[in-house]
Amino acid sequence: MKFKLDENLGTRTERVFFSHGHDVATVRMEGLQGAPDGTLFSVCRQEGRCLVTLDLDFSDVTRFPVEESCGLVVFRVPRNPTLSCLEELASRFLEACRQVSPEGKLFIVETGRIRIHDTD
């Protein structure tokens, strides 16, 4: 699968996606830091990538219609997340992807559960 990691996720999270064999690009790699959310959503659609972020704004399916995307993944973390917490959420999400494709869906991944919003 093809993913784009938002600027709020670091190299350790990136390595989790690589270690699971996925094609990963980052906002940082592509010089998109600080880009408006709408621009980032459009770039991901054009590239055919599922966006992975900590930005809760992307959970608004009226603003970012997931049915028009390759998927949106929002990690909900405690106030001061550790790096291992982010790695764990990434790993849990990637395990869930073995059962359910993220394409056209919003995944809200938090400690202890994953919620999937599907427009179908």
Shape: globular
Question: Mind telling me the CATH class?
Answer: Alpha Beta
Helix content: 25-40%
Which fold name is given in CATH as the topology? Rossmann fold
Element order: H for helix, E for strand: EHEHEEHEE
Which structural class do the helices and strands define? alpha/beta
Largest sheet: 6 strands, mixed
Distance between the termini: 21 Å
Supply the number of structural domains.
1
> Nearest-angstrom radius of gyration?
13 Å
Q: Number of helical runs?
A: 3
Strand order of the largest sheet: 2-1-3-4-5-6
- Round the mean pLDDT to the nearest integer and report it: 91
Low confidence ranges: none
* Proportion of beta-strand residues: 15-25%
Task: Give the strand tally.
Answer: 6
User: Which CATH-level-2 architecture?
Assistant: 3-Layer(aba) Sandwich
What does this structure look like?
By secondary structure, this protein is an alpha/beta fold. The chain has one domain (2-118): Rossmann fold, CATH 3.40.50. The protein has three helices and six strands, in the order E-H-E-H-E-E-H-E-E. The protein has helices at residues 11-19, 37-47, 83-97, and strands at 2-5, 23-26, 50-53, 72-76, 105-110, 113-118. It has a six-stranded mixed β-sheet with strand order 2-1-3-4-5-6, sandwiched between helices. Strand 1, helix 1 and strand 2 (23-26) form a beta-alpha-beta unit. Helix 1 (11-19) packs parallel to helix 3. The chain is globular and about 30 Å long. The protein starts with a strand and ends with a strand. The model has no long low-confidence stretch (mean pLDDT 91).
